[in-house]
Design a protein that fits this description.
282 residues, Rossmann fold, 2 domains, six-stranded parallel beta sheet, four-stranded parallel beta sheet, 10 strands, 20% strand
């Protein structure tokens, strides 16, 4: 947040961190201090979190806007149309919040707003505003292709696939190596992945394993390295990278073993193609 605040010029903006050790104390303090204030727009990131629900049901705002929460945005979009906005606050949590002085008095509006990079259509339940990261592209005026550096291929790791995940990953990596022979691959591991497992299963491949300390879009923009392509199975970053760096090749690996477990997979493929992401089959 400090990096973004500096890059975007957010001077005078208060950032509050809810640490685990003092979580409930801070949550109660923030909710009470904001109650009674005029909130013009309330932006919510995690639509399935009871904590976020506490804010949009406990505070008065003129407009409620849900922003992207990765590919879960697509799932939540369909859930709203199928079953409405389901509450994540249990009776026990309600009693706890009441004891903290937080009263859930708001009813979620019939129509809510989505601010998203995904090409989802507006409906009678959801007003969708689709964006292509204009502020990001204006702020980070850098190209994904640095012609003076060695070309690289990026691979976005994901902790999905169950017991056979690592073998599926090895098959995906073989596919990428065949498409880009003699090119070094940078594997950006997910925070839930094990470096030891990755090093074992990817041994023999021209792969460097990294764990980026900042969002992958920022990493690519500021690295000064030349990424000629990015690959993954299904990742939000496939959308974002293609929109931010439209001249870079971005590929979605169509793995039918994994796709059988993914909700709305065919719809996601359609949106990938609409954005300019290529599909490559194993």
């Amino acid at each position: 947040m400090e990096f973004l605040a500096e890059a975007l010029g957010w001077h005078g903006v208060e950032t509050i961190y809810l640490k685990k050790s003092t979580f409930y104390l801070r949550l109660g303090y923030i909710a009470r201090s904001l109650s009674g204030r005029v909130i013009h727009r309330l932006f919510i990131g995690n639509k399935s979190s009871w904590i976020h629900e506490t804010f949009y049901r406990g505070l008065d705002s003129e407009q409620l806007i849900f922003v992207d929460d990765g590919l879960a945005t697509v799932t939540y979009y369909h859930a709203i149309h199928d079953e409405g906005i389901a509450s994540r606050i249990s009776q026990g949590k309600s009693r706890l919040l009441a004891a903290m002085g937080i009263h859930l008095h708001r009813v979620v509006p019939d129509v809510i707003a989505f601010f998203t990079c995904f090409p989802l259509p507006s409906s009678e339940r959801v007003q969708v505003r689709v964006h292509d990261f204009p502020v990001f592209r204006e702020t980070f005026k850098l190209s994904a292709r640095n012609k003076g550096s060695v070309p690289l291929v990026g691979f976005l790791g994901q902790p999905i696939g169950g017991e056979n995940r690592l073998q599926q990953l090895r098959g995906q990596m073989e596919h990428v190596v065949e498409r880009h022979p003699d090119t070094r691959i940078v594997y950006f591991m997910h925070r839930k992945e094990s470096r030891a497992d990755l090093e074992r299963i990817l041994a023999g491949f021209p792969v460097e394993i990294r764990q980026a300390g900042r969002p992958i879009e920022v990493e690519v923009a500021l690295s000064g390295e030349s990424y000629i392509a990015f690959y993954s199975f299904v990742s939000t970053a496939l959308f974002t990278l293609k929109k931010i760096f439209p001249d870079m090749q971005v590929c979605q690996i169509d793995d039918r073993v994994l796709s059988a477990r993914w909700p709305y997979y065919d719809e996601l493929l359609s949106m990938f193609r609409e954005t300019g992401v290529e599909t490559t089959a194993l």
